[in-house]
Amino acid sequence: MIEDESATDDAFRALAEPRRRAILRLVATDELAAGEIAAAFDVTRTAISQHLTVLREAGLVNERRAGTRRLYRARPEGLAGLRRFLDEMWSDALDVGRRLVEADRAAGEPGLESDVA
Amino acid sequence: MIEDESATDDAFRALAEPRRRAILRLVATDELAAGEIAAAFDVTRTAISQHLTVLREAGLVNERRAGTRRLYRARPEGLAGLRRFLDEMWSDALDVGRRLVEADRAAGEPGLESDVA
DNA sequence: CGCTAACGTTAGCGTCAACTGACAGATCAA
DNA sequence: TTGATCTGTCAGTTGACGCTAACGTTAGCG
Questions:
Q1: SMART domains per the record (chains A, B) (predicted)?
Q2: B81: which of A19, A78, B8, B77 fits an S-S bond (Cβ 3.0–4.6 Å)?
Q3: 10-residue block means of pLDDT along chain B (117 residues)?
């Protein structure tokens, strides 16, 4: 198994929302309470709470309870799937780039090329 | 300037759709025509065409016209913003992780632990 | 010229997602 | 217990998104 493909899907969908990325940036370096996070935005605490739920279910943040407060912190392992996808895309596309350069150079030498017009 | 923040936003939104990620994977190694891409899925060509438009406007694919056909290929530079975000999040969160390990070790030496039941 | 093939574009529809407002649960102090 | 604080959850609305079907456009062939 590849570590659950749906997990990567959840992470992508969660990160598609700009506000959720901003939240993730906030809790990347510091552990913050839901209220503190909500205070940083112009939307309702309800909205932030829902965003935090999405982030938690996507495995992107950790939740820890302390009294009546709930403290959140970024969870780097949740980004593993994203990194895999990006690295794969990146290297593959760059390989093609190199291959095209070679084909371009080869096309200028003898008289044999097969595909494309 | 930071290379336009909205560009990164477009890329994230574009990649939130599983089908668009699949398309991107297809054109990562080979340059394909819209029809060939559409043939790989169970949806209408119209839907694929719209997906390709989104990917192109997000800077994730390149379009090249050859006769009546339009050939698409992945554009690795479009992923630059994503990579920056991921690398930043990753390193920041891991730094915090190390800091926490140190604090944990310092707290674990004498005979005092406080939280959790 | 007409005809066909390969695409993109528009209008319309159904569905999902983000937001607000009102309510409920849990914790701590007096 | 009563009250105040911090927070999640439940309807309900609105806007965005993905899909299909019909149409318009461009390139190549006879």
A1: HTH_ARSR (SM00418)
A2: B8
A3: 79 98 97 98 98 98 97 96 94 69 52 33
